[in-house]
Design brief:
Elements lengths: L1 E4 L10 E4 L9 E11 L1 H8 L19 E9 L11 E5 L14 E5 L3 E3 L6 H21 L7 E5 L4 H12 L3 E6 L4 H6 L4 E4 L12 E6 L6 H4 L3 E9 L4 H10 L5 E4 L6 H12 L7 E6 L3 H10 L5 E5 L4
Parallel strand pairs: 8-9, 8-11, 9-10, 11-12, 12-13, 14-15
Antiparallel strand pairs: 1-2, 3-4, 3-6, 3-15, 4-5, 5-7
Helix pairs in contact: 2-3, 2-7
Bound molecules: NADP nicotinamide-adenine-dinucleotide phosphate.
Length: 320
């Protein structure tokens, strides 16, 4: 199979395309022919080995980066029920040191319970662009911060991958949603359904004249301490990236009704199927800023590293 790989932690420019052996589906697994992948900040962290990237992938070389994928099953392992060759599916590889594969390749092998049916209303690029970020937003707000209907939610970093889905999912779950983003992305965040979109450069969260039941710090720039003055009693704070301030916040929360959590996204069929249902009913959708052909993957990664992406960047391996 053709794959994009690194031989050591390095720069994006040092990665290269090459032929690697095709993987095979073992018992309980399926092999997916990747039609599209999506780019995440984690891919840049894995390639450079910085910002915790060494903990997101097995440190074995050649290392193929990439987590999100959408494609079609082309091999079914022994004992797998419910999936057949040709089924269109989407998902993401584990963010863990046990993960020895990457979705920047023509084939991936995954546990049968860790993929969902591809939404019929989405292209492969749109489905791949939903996998990690929609699962993260859902698991962060519903499971970690106990979002309930009627809650008021603040999403810090509402214009990026996690935030763009976060706004839509929180609305789908019946919340009032406020989001922060750069001034250039305010219209985008409002178009996603946010009740209020605020420029993070012109804002101090603790000065907001509102109380929030859930705060999702998707950008990982607002600590629990900074958010606490605007959190209601019993509110939940959840971040995508633990920092020393997260630990301090966790300790402080032990003496309050408020909770501090860190989300580690898990690829679960039930969540992916729910996200696919929401996409098909038109309640949520991927925002794909740009789609690059597979050969232009280095440009896609550079664009992600540069920041300011509206939603997601996708990579197309095969038509569809
Ligand atoms: N723990 C997990 O399971 C998990 C899962 C997924 C992602 N993550 C991590 O979560 C983080 C966000 O992921 P993503 O995919 O959403 O990234 P992204 O697409 O790059 O989005 C980043 C967001 O942060 C905003 N931002 C930048 N600087 C900010 C600031 N000073 N204050 C407030 N917002 C700011 C950006 O706004 P503008 O573009 O408008 O400037 C954008 O909305 C990354 O570190 C990623 O690795 C963790």
């Amino acid at each position: 199979m053709r794959a994009f790989a690194i031989d050591r932690y390095s720069r994006i420019e040092d990665a290269s395309f090459r032929e690697l052996p095709d993987p095979s589906a073992a018992a309980g697994q399926v092999r997916v022919r990747v039609h599209a992948a999506a780019v995440n900040p984690a891919d840049v962290k894995v390639i450079t080995g910085r910002d915790g990237g060494r903990f997101l992938h097995a440190p074995r070389f050649p290392l193929v980066p990439g987590f999100d994928f959408s494609g079609a099953i082309d091999q079914v392992g022994a004992g797998v029920d419910g999936w057949s060759e040709g089924d269109a599916v989407f998902g993401f590889l584990p963010y863990a040191r046990s993960n020895r594969q990457g979705s920047f390749a023509e084939l991936v092998v995954v546990e049968a319970g860790a993929i969902g049916r591809k939404p019929a209303q989405a292209t492969h690029a749109e489905a791949a662009s939903a996998a990690t970020v929609a699962s993260t937003a859902l698991q962060a707000m519903r499971d970690k911060a106990r979002l309930r209907q009627g809650a008021r939610v603040l999403i810090n970093g509402a214009s990026g991958g996690v935030g763009s889905y976060g706004v839509q999912i929180a609305k789908r779950l019946g919340a009032e949603v406020w989001g922060t983003c750069s001034a250039a992305r305010i219209e985008h965040v409002e178009a996603l359904g946010a009740d209020r979109a605020l420029d993070y450069r012109a804002l101090k969260i603790s000065d907001l004249d509102a109380r929030f039941d859930v705060i999702l710090d998707a950008a990982a720039t607002a600590s629990f301490g900074a958010c606490r003055p605007v959190m209601s009693p019993g509110a939940g704070y959840v971040t995508t990236l633990p920092t020393p301030a997260t630990l301090a916040g966790f300790l402080a929360s032990l003496f309050s009704s408020q909770t501090v959590r860190f989300v580690v996204v898990k690829s679960r069929r039930a969540d992916l199927d729910l996200i696919a249902d929401w996409i098909d009913e038109g309640a949520v959708a991927s925002v794909v800023d740009r789609t690059y052909p597979f050969e232009a993957l280095p440009d896609a990664l550079q664009a992600m590293a540069a920041g300011g992406v509206k939603g997601k960047i996708a990579v197309q391996m095969a038509p569809g």
